[in-house]
Design a protein that fits this description.
This protein is mainly α. It has one domain. The chain has 11 helices and 6 strands. The longest helix has 31 residues.
């Protein structure tokens, strides 16, 4: 029983991160009908920004308060990166065929990976762990089920998702985002500055990804130029599973995917940990392409 609870906590911890990244996919898709495959690299840039903040701050930045500062800085770095991607790569292609924009997204992803690889000599960097005791190892919040690192990841993800809900459903810009996601052309006719809304959506998605990268870094300990590739792809699977374009769907899809791969790795084989995510993607596309919360919308031809 203890092992089952421990695996559930691990699954929720991993799933919370997938959900944060998946929210970025689903928000951008909801407005532009674009799969932003460079979103994983936004996550990676945020991780390096958070790590640099912790290192530059010295010993004073190695506690919980310093970690909170690193989360904010990483979020801002992710937001800035996402904004530049939208402004420089996607905006000039507005109105072009979707396949062109999709290929551009893949190209931007590879470009950012290689730029960071050059800047870091393709070497991994390591966090100064905050929730670890040097003599005893991991610090437990609830022995032996929940470590402080797990609680930090899950709690931080919940706070960031709550922040997103507040922005989307309680602010004027959030109302504009929902209007543009319903119909971009009609929203423009009603006086909404759609270009500004699209940029804000990328900024918000980038902030969530960048802040989430610090949560991952504290749990896993390392940061590298390819760290956004696999989590980014898995988050895309989570978004499709929940229903891409649906914010609740991204949350549920991320948690389900995180638990699924954790239980498969624990009780079947760790060799199938990554395969299960893409197996789920294939099944969802075959059985319910719209996802759990998605709705089929017929298109006029």
């Amino acid at each position: 029983m203890a092992e089952l609870v421990q695996q559930l906590v691990n699954g929720l911890s991993n799933g919370a991160i997938y959900a944060l990244i998946a929210l970025g996919y689903t928000m951008v898709y909801g407005i532009l009908r674009l799969i932003n495959f460079a979103h994983g690299e936004v996550f990676m840039v945020g991780a390096f920004a958070g790590l640099a903040t912790q290192r530059l701050g010295g010993a004073e930045m190695r506690g919980p308060a310093g970690l909170a500062v690193a989360i904010v800085v990483a979020g801002l770095a992710g937001a800035a990166t996402a904004f530049l991607i939208e402004r420089l790569a996607y905006r000039p292609l507005r109105g072009k065929p979707r396949i062109i924009v999709l290929i551009t997204a893949i190209g931007v992803s590879i470009l950012i990976q290689n730029l960071v690889a050059i800047a870091t000599d393709a070497r991994p960097s390591f966090w100064q762990p905050v929730f670890v005791n040097e003599s005893e190892g991991a610090i437990y919040l609830i022995t032996p089920f929940v470590t402080l690192a797990d609680a930090f990841v899950i709690g931080g993800a919940i706070l960031l998702m709550g922040f997103l809900q507040l922005v989307v459903y309680r602010t004027r810009m959030g109302r504009a985002m929902r209007a543009v996601s319903q119909n971009l052309e009609v929203a423009a006719l009603m006086g909404i500055h759609t270009g500004r809304v699209i940029s804000f959506t990328f900024i918000l998605a980038g902030f969530l990804a960048g802040a989430g990268a610090v949560l991952v870094g504290q749990k896993n300990g390392s940061v590298s130029y390819i760290m956004g590739l696999l989590p980014g792809l898995k988050a895309f699977v989570a978004a499709v599973l929940g229903g891409i374009g649906s914010i609740p769907g991204a949350l549920v899809g991320g948690l389900l995917l995180g638990c699924a791969e954790t239980f498969v790795a624990a009780y079947v084989s760790s060799n199938y940990r990554d395969a299960i995510a893409f197996g789920i993607l294939i099944v969802v596309l075959l059985v319910r392409p719209s996802g759990i919360f998605g709705r089929y919308v017929p298109e006029k031809v």
